[in-house]
Amino acid sequence: PVVRDLIVDRSVMRENLIAIHNWLESEASQSEKNIDLAYDASRCIQCGCCLDVCPIFTAGESFFGAAAFVPASRILSQLPKGKKYDLVNEYGKHIYSGCGKSLSCHNICPVGIDVEHKLSNSNAVAVWKRFFK
Questions:
Q1: At what angle do helices 35-42 and 115-126 cross, to 10 degrees?
Q2: CA distances to 72, 91, 119 from 32, in Å
Q3: Cα–Cα distance, 103 to 123 (Å, whole number)
Q4: Can you tell me the distance from the alpha carbon of 83 to that of 62, in angstroms, rounded to the nearest whole number?
Q5: Inter-residue contact 32 to 82 (CB < 8 Å)
Q6: Which end of the chain is more exposed for a tag (fewer CB within 10 A), N or C?
Q7: ∠23-12-121 over CA atoms, to 5°?
Q8: 11-22+31-126 has which fold?
Q9: Residue 120 neighbours by CB distance under 10 Å
Q10: pLDDT at residue 1 in the model
Q11: Pseudo-torsion of CA 47, 102, 112, 5, nearest 10°?
Q12: Which residues contact 41 (CB under 8 A, 6 or more apart)?
């Protein structure tokens, strides 16, 4: 029997975001070029549906999944070039090198975030170090 509404333990997602330093420490500016990307990424509700369908994600392992790279794409678009170093290093270690690009997360998002687009943009910034110059 249902005693009360489903309660989801999102502590793994929180710990992963802390591990990659996914926050702004000071004011950042948003250029007109990147405003749509940042807005779309900010719609992530951290529900974890993307992690449920990911064939690679396992809680406590080194790959953090779309629940980490979608918010990271927003922060990467706002940080000045010199301030991206920590996030870029953690992104490479916990997202880029682990993602198998199956994109099973792409169609599951309940708010309709274009996860594939966020992944390619984040990879461009963090790995190929271009796009948001």
A1: 120
A2: 18, 24, 20
A3: 14
A4: 23
A5: no
A6: N
A7: 50
A8: Fumarate Reductase Iron-sulfur Protein; Chain B, domain 2 (1.10.1060)
A9: 13
A10: 56
A11: -20
A12: 70, 71, 73, 74, 77, 113, 118
The whole-angstrom distance between residue 63's C-alpha and the CA centroid of its chain comes to 11
What is the model's pTM? 0.77
Beta-carbon contacts of 78 under 8 Å, excluding residues fewer than 6 positions away, are: 24, 28, 29, 30, 34, 38
Residue 64 has pLDDT above 90, yes or no: yes
Which residues, in sequence order, are CB contacts of 30 under 8 Å at separation 6+?
Answer: 38, 77, 78
Residue 90 is predicted with a pLDDT of: 86
Chain center to CA of 120: 11
Q: Per-residue pLDDT tens for 82-113?
A: 777 778 888 888 988 888 889 899 889 999 99
Q: At which residue do the structure tokens 């249902």 appear?
A: 2
Look at residue 129 in the predicted model and tell me its pLDDT.
Answer: 64
